[in-house]
Specification:
two-stranded antiparallel ribbon; 39% helix; mainly alpha; HIT family, subunit A
Length: 97
């Protein structure tokens, strides 16, 4: 549990550091189905869905996103992961002290 908490802190600090502001997000947590089936191979999934395209610019959902209950991004996940890896894991407010 401590490693999960450390990982969540690391990613949320990096989100804040990306634009040096508090970074809003929706964090869905998906668990294995509970219908009694065999889901031994299922792994929990935690997602981060930011509602901003860039600082101070909201991402507006399109019809298919709203209707399908999906949140789409027109960016490559590998690009965004590289951006987050490139910023510090020490919160910008802490680093300024």
């Amino acid at each position: 549990m401590a490693s999960l908490a450390a990982g969540l802190k690391d990613i949320t600090v990096r989100f804040d550091n990306l634009w040096r502001q508090p970074f809003p997000y929706v964090m869905p947590l998906h668990q294995a189905p509970t219908d009694g089936g065999d889901y031994r191979d299922f792994h929990a999934f935690i997602g981060f869905l930011p509602p901003l395209r860039r600082p101070n610019t909201l991402k507006y959902l399109a019809g298919p996103e709203i209707g399908g209950g999906n949140f789409l991004s027109d960016t490559a996940p590998e690009e965004k992961a590289a951006e987050l890896r490139a910023v510090s894991s020490i919160h910008y407010r802490e680093a300024a002290r």
